[in-house]
């Protein structure tokens, strides 16, 4: 059986995501099983997901995915490099995934490989990378400039965010020496963070904006019907939309307890901790803190991730690699994959969360960190009655009959 992995956030699942699934099966065969490594309740831009992870996983399975697994929490709040490595390490550990499908603005795998080879920290362009970093460029921009100095065409490729992620997926496959074969799918629809859909396919940020505005009628034609139904039900139950503003003061109350030395554990200790410490004291909302702290050297997403890590007590010393497999949703073919994984997977598989208490002691701190993150996320539900903790042990994967 061909089993293809996809790294996603599905925040929320929209028509563009359905297009990616369809194009993957068109390329590999209609009977291809699809396993998704999906961000949990926190997403890579440094924010809370608009809808809880089991709900988003349910939408994915109802719309064509076969098995949805949770990307490690630490990877979800890392730069593109760590995000890609954590998700790919999870898929590689399953031992049965044959392909990795990802969207890219330029689905030229040969060109993506050129950019991959040149984006490494060693090689002829290493001096150019050091110079760009010394000039104050953020890492991603410095890599792009350094690659462009050697190969302008490959450098231009890295100006697009999905191309950058595609390169990081290829880097991760190489680093893991994984047998998984990459498959680049030409991305369609609205550009990353675009305010308008294209060809009827929106960006997730555009959909989130509509959801926050309460304009569900505008969302409906931009989402598969099954995904829209899940979103509608979550909103009716006051489980969504989840917004960071709900926990704004709780976050600031915790962040103001931290010293610059404390903050350095969550942001890398290259001076950003001092900007964060000042911004936390001089501003009264999370958004204002982020705006005050960001610079060209410290992009907004990095600032948000650092603050979110500090709130969750998730220091950078925790690597983005997978230590266990958490199942969020499963379809009919997904059950077959789970049966296969019994013989091939190198990590413990968590289907029912209550069973994780019996897992090895060395991973219990990571499991506790996951549980805390979910409890803090619960504080942001629209309905106060849902703010109780311990939800981790009351939820089980969605199973499509």
Approximate helicity band: 40-55%
Structural classification: alpha/beta
Mean pLDDT: 92
Q: Give the number of helices.
A: 19
The radius of gyration over CA amounts to: 20 Å
- List the secondary-structure elements in sequence, H or E: EHEEEHEHHEHHHHHEHHHHHHHHEHEHE
Q: Assign an overall shape.
A: globular
Which percent range describes the beta-strand content? 5-15%
Distance between the termini: 21 Å
Could you characterize the architecture of this molecule?
With 401 residues, this protein is of the alpha/beta class. The protein is built from 19 helices and ten strands. It has helices at residues 15-28, 53-62, 73-76, 80-93, 109-118, 126-134, 139-150, 152-157, 161-176, 204-213, 216-219, 225-236, 248-255, 260-267, 272-282, 286-293, 300-312, 332-344, 364-378, and strands at 3-8, 33-38, 42-43, 47-48, 67-70, 99-104, 181-186, 325-330, 349-350, 398-399. The strands form two sheets. Strands 1, 2, 5, 6, 7, 8, 9 and 10 form an eight-stranded mixed beta sheet that branches. Strands 3-4 form a two-stranded antiparallel sheet. α4 packs across α9 (161-176). The protein is globular and about 55 Å long. The two termini are 21 Å apart. The mean pLDDT is 92.
